[in-house]
Structures are given as C-alpha cells and as structure tokens.
Amino acid sequence: MTKRLASVTTEDYRQLAEKRLPTFLYDYIAGGANDEITMAANIADFRKLCIKQHVMRDVSSVDTSTVLSGQASSMPLALAPVGMAGMMARRGEVQGARGAAQVDVPFTCSTVGICSVEEIKSATNRPFWFQLYMLRNRDVVLSILARAKAAGCETLVFTVDLAVPGMRHRDRRNAMEAGGLAILSQIAARPRWAVDVGLRGRPHSLGNLTEVVKDTNSLNGYKTFIEEQFDATVTWKDIAWLRSVWHGKLIIKGVLQEDDALQARDAGADGVVVSNHGGRQLDSVASSIAKLPAVVSAVGDQVEVYMDGGVRSGIDVVKAVALGARGVLIGRPWIWALAAKKEAGLTDLLCTFQKEISVAMALIGVNKIDQLHGELIDKS
Question: What is the distance of C-alpha 62 from the center of its chain?
Fold first, then answer.
C-alpha cells in the first residue's frame, strides 16, 4: 500500500479537497467565469514576479506581525469571505473562524454563509469581519448590520463587483442550478461528505438571511434569492448611505481601477480590496496583482489597500505587500484546507503561510513587514 504523503501546500490541500467534495461543490469553489482566463492570470502573474535576494544582513529578529483594519494580526493575511463555506465542511464558517483565531489572523464571514454571525460569535468569542452584499430591501440590510455589530464585528467588507452573477459554466455543467438526480449522484460518490457535512452539518440554510430566503434548504432557494434580492442599481451614492449607517471600519471589495478606488475613498471607505472576485465574475479582466500598484499609487496612504486573487503561498503574500498591499485575503486556499482536513488542516496551512513569509523576509534581508517595498521586486 502506498503511504499517503502529508498535506503541506495549497496545492496539496486542493487535490485532497477535490477527492472529498462532491463535484458540484468542488467546482463551485475551484471554478471561474467563462473560460477562466482571469482566474488563471491571477496565479500566473504572481509567478512572473521575482524577488530580490539580499545577503549578509542581520535577520535574527524577523517579525511577520502587522495591523489589519485596526486589528492585530500575526501576518498580513486575512481569510476572505467564502459563500456557503458550511457546505464544504461541517459548520465551515465556525471552523474557519476558530482556525483563524488559533493563528491570530482576521476571519471574514460571508453574507451567504451557512453559519450565522451569532453562531460564529458563540463559538469563538472573538471579533471577526463581516462581508455584505447590498440587498434590494434596505431594511433587511439594516437588520443584518445590527446583527453583525451585536456579534462584535467592527470591520465591514462590502462587495461591489457582483451587480449580476458571472457566467460560471462549471456550475451549469454540474447541473448545480437544476439540482435533482445529477446532484444526488455526486453526493453518493462522496459518502464521507454525505455523513459528516450532509447529515451532521445541518441545517444548511443561509444563517444570516433566514428572514429573506424563503426556500432555506436547497440550492434553488439560494439561486432564487440572488436573482430576486441582489441589487443591480447600486451606485456610489448607496455606499455613502452605507457609510452613514455603519460606524465601524468600511472596506470596499472588488476594485480594479484607480478611479473606482478614488470613488471609494470619497464615499468614506477606510480601505479597498483590489479584486476580480477570484476570476469568478468578468472574465478577461486583468489579474489583481497586476492592478495593485496603480491603485496603491492612486490612493496613497489615504485608505488601506488590500488584494485577493491568486495568492497561494507566503511568498505571494510577500510579493503583494512589497507592491503596496497592507495585506491579502485568501479564499480558495483556506476553504480547500478546511474541506480536506477540517480545522486542523486550516491551521496547518496558515502556519505554513506564516513560515514561508518569515523565511522569505529573512532571505530578502528584512525583519519587519513595513520594510517590504517595491524595490525588492525585480523588474528586470
């Protein structure tokens, strides 16, 4: 019998998650929009960047810690919001929040998470970030914000790049939209998931949206909610309204262009996330890492700039921070680790990220996160 090797990297956990998740759920996470050109570019453009190595420096006190949106963090990394994380692992949002707390990095709860903000608070008793989509019913938005605040959320991450859902062909191929026998056959092929998550992980309702999602126990109910409640009329004026009712930190997620970053600043945002939604929305737009320097240049020190998309290692984190990011958000890596080996897998992967950051900093010749800068990226 061949001995199974330990999972260490993001790719290790991706492969194991693919074996353990029903195909429609794996592809929901792993897939992108249309031909997945942007999704591939997010990773490829990181690999094109080279770091300058400097030797014979005193690097005996490397410290990866920083502050993200006013919250101390062991490294410049936060867990991005992942919709329906509780379908990838039993009560996945709770496990994700606990794993993030163990490694001391921020966790972001999605509007469309399975676990409610109250459940996460009860399980962790630690502040976390909350991600919001603007809904047509503003009273529901106010109710959600009140619940998030009561749960201890001080940072609101507002996603602006989902006026309409992207064309995700993998979901259509897997009959995710139709459900029925195609979905049941995929679940039957993953009995471990069926028992641990499908049965023991109930309820599978969207915990933060039970007051607006009528059919709370099916994928069709989730799809109908998106079609009926996501608001395609939202403009920067609505962000100004949001700023007037939310008095904590406000981060705008989904910015790629400098003018949009400036609009976010003018609307009262404390930060922006340079993001193309992991390549899941508009295909053939530029990678996030390619757009990061221009956004940083546009807003300077006026707002905190984060990025997501294509981050697969601590080396990628170092590259992004050197190019001006306050920190990065990771989505697929953390949910793959959770799907593969639960909370223990997540904490293991995050520790690997932190060690990779620390080693890279030492070999670059710096001791502090704020010593990373653009001149450390080889532009030759």
Answer: 26
Whether 4 is in a domain gets the answer: no
For residue 34, what are the CA distances in angstroms to 169, 172, 342? 6, 11, 30
Cβ(251)–Cβ(156) below 8 Å: yes
Q: Answer yes or no: are the C-beta atoms of 274 and 286 closer than 8 Å.
A: no
Backbone angles phi, psi at 35, to 5 degrees: -90, 5
Place of tokens 């520790």: 351
Please identify every residue annotated as catalytic. Answer: 277
* Inter-residue contact 311 to 276 (CB < 8 Å): no
The whole-number pLDDT of residue 27 equals 97
pLDDT for res 379: 76
Residue 244 in this model has a pLDDT that exceeds 80: yes
Give a yes or no: residue 262 inside a domain: yes
Are 67 and 77 in contact by the 8 Å Cβ rule? The answer is no
Whether the CB-CB separation of 281 and 299 falls below 8 Å is answered with: no
Closest to 282 (Cα-Cα) out of 27, 29, 38: 38
Spatial neighbors of 2 by CB under 8 A, at least 6 apart, are none
> What is the tens place of the pLDDT at every residue in 321-373?
999 999 999 999 999 999 999 999 999 999 999 999 999 999 999 999 999 99
Contact (CB, 8 A) for 29 and 82: yes
Supply 234's token pair: 């939202």
Residue bearing tokens 């502040």: 127
Quote the number of domains for the chain.
1
Residue 198: its pLDDT value, please? 96
Containing domain of residue 344, as a range? Answer: 10-378
Q: Is 210 helix (H, G, I), strand (E, B) or coil?
A: coil
User: At 210, is the pLDDT very low, low, confident or very high (cuts 50, 70, 90)?
Assistant: confident
Q: How far is CA 18 from the centre of its chain?
A: 19
Q: Is residue 2 part of a domain?
A: no
From CA 72, how far away is CA 177, in angstroms rounded?
Answer: 41
Could you tell me the CATH number of the domain that includes residue 225?
Answer: 3.20.20.70
Judging by beta carbons within 10 Å of its beta carbon (0-12, 13-18, 19+), is residue 58 exposed, middle or buried? exposed
- The answer to whether residue 127 sits within a structural domain is yes
Given the structure tokens 């490694």, which residue do they identify? 103
